[in-house]
Amino acid sequence: xxxxxxxxxxxxxxxxxxxxxxxxxxxxxxxxxxxxxxxxxxxxxxxxxxxxxxxxxxxxxxxxxxxxxxxxxxxxxxxxxxxxxxxxxxxxxxxxxxxxxxxxxxxxxxxxxxxxxxxxxxxxxxxxxxxxxxxxxxxxxxxxxxxxxxxxxxxxxxxxxxxxxxxxxxxxxxxxxxxxxxxxxxxxxxxxxxxxxxxxxxxxxxxxxxxxxxxxxxxxxxxxxxxxxxxxxxxxxxxxxxxxxxxxxxxxxxxxxxxxxxxxxxxxxxxxxxxxxxxxxxxxxxxxxxxxxxxxxxxxxxxxxxxxxxxxxxxxx
Length: 317
Fold this sequence. Notes:
Elements: E1 6-7, E2 19-25, E3 35-42, H1 44-53, H2 57-74, E4 81-89, E5 93-102, E6 108-117, H3 119-123, H4 130-134, E7 137-144, E8 152-157, H5 163-175, E9 179-187, E10 194-203, H6 220-229, H7 233-237, H8 243-251, E11 256-258, E12 262-266, H9 272-279, H10 284-290, E13 291-292, E14 295-299, E15 306-309
Parallel strand pairs: 6-12
Antiparallel strand pairs: 1-11, 2-3, 2-11, 2-12, 3-10, 4-5, 4-7, 5-6, 7-8, 9-10, 13-14, 14-15
C-alpha cells in the first residue's frame, strides 16, 4: 500500500516477541485512519529484567506491566535519546522507573527498568493493585534528546487503581487526548518464564476526513475501545498467538492495517567508566565510608550488575 501498511489476514503466524507492532484502524473512513494504536509483546526481554532482581511476585508484576506500558507509550514517538516513565508514591513500592533509549528514531528501542520497595510492607498485601503498591504519588513521562534540544516532561497525579488508568488519566490531563490502554504481565504456564504485553488506541486528531455510512454504529472510538476490551490477559500474553493475529481477532472488521514492527532489546548504559566518573567526584572520606571489606561496591539499580573498586585508587580529579 502507498503508506507502507499491510492488510492483516487470519493466517498470520509470526510468533515474534520483544517488539512493538504499530497499527491503524480505518473504521469506516474513506481516507486515512480513524484510530491509531500499538501492541507491545515482551518475552525473553522482560524475563531477563525481572529474574535479575528476583522481585517479590507483586513487584515483578508491576515492573513487568510498567515495561510493557513504557514501550507502548514510547512507540508513539520518533526521537533520538531517552524516554523515561517514572512513578513515585508513598506506598510499599516507592519508585518504578522504565527508560527506553534509541539512536535511530525508534526503529530499535533499548529497554530497562527497576523498582524500589519495602519487602516487609509488600509481604502484607494480598493481590494488591498498582494503587495499593504505589499509594499516592505521580506519573511522569520525560523525553530527553540531548544537550541541544528542549527536554519535555509531563507530570500528573496517580489517578485510578491500575497502570492503564494512570496512563489514561495522563493523556486526558496532560495531552487533552483520548487514549485507551491495557497492560498485562505474568508467568507463562508452560515454561514459567515472565511475559508482558500492552496495547493502546488513540483517536486521530483530523476530524475533516469523510466517514462512510456504516452498520457498526456512529462512534468508531467507543466501538473500538469495546473491541479492544474483549481481549484477555491470557491472549495478550500467549506465546502461541502471533501479535498480528491477535490484532486481527480484535479488529478484523475495522479496516485493520499494520506497519513494520519496532524491535525491542534489553540493555543497560551502566559501565565502569561512567561509575568511575561519579566516584571521582566524591571526597576520599566518603569513599572510605562506602567501602565494604576494603572495596567500594556499586550495584546498578537497573541491571543489578556489581562493580568493585579499590578506594585508594579513587582520588578526586
